[in-house]
Amino acid sequence: MAGAHHERWDGTGYLQGLRGEQIPLSARLMALADVYDALRSRRPYKEATTHEEATALIISGRGTQFDPDIVQVFRETQSAFIEIDRRHADEA
User: What is the DSSP letter of 48?
Assistant: First the structure.
């Protein structure tokens, strides 16, 4: 999972240039979760985006960066992402 979560559904990612279902399912799941967390988290060089902004960016990556089926499940389970994000939000 750690070695493949930067692969992209369309094959333009790295380390190995895997595409589609060549990417392990665990890595495809982690790719979306990692991007969501990175977007929603404040960093020294950027502010956190809103859930809506993060969602729009993930949806725009459907079929290119992310597995289309996983994006669909993300859309259907957004309330769980919101709740987990709320529980683990960065402190102000």
Answer: P
Q: Which structure tokens are listed for 65?
A: 């960066």
Report d(CA 76, CA 90) in Å as an integer: 25
pTM across the whole model: 0.90
Beta bridge partners, 43, equal: 46
Identify the pLDDT of residue 88: 85
Decide: 32 and 40 in contact? Cβ < 8 Å.
no
Ordered by start, the domain boundaries in the chain are 20-87
Nearest to 39 by CA among 30, 49, 29: 49
Q: How far from the centroid of its chain's Cα atoms is residue 4's Cα?
A: 13
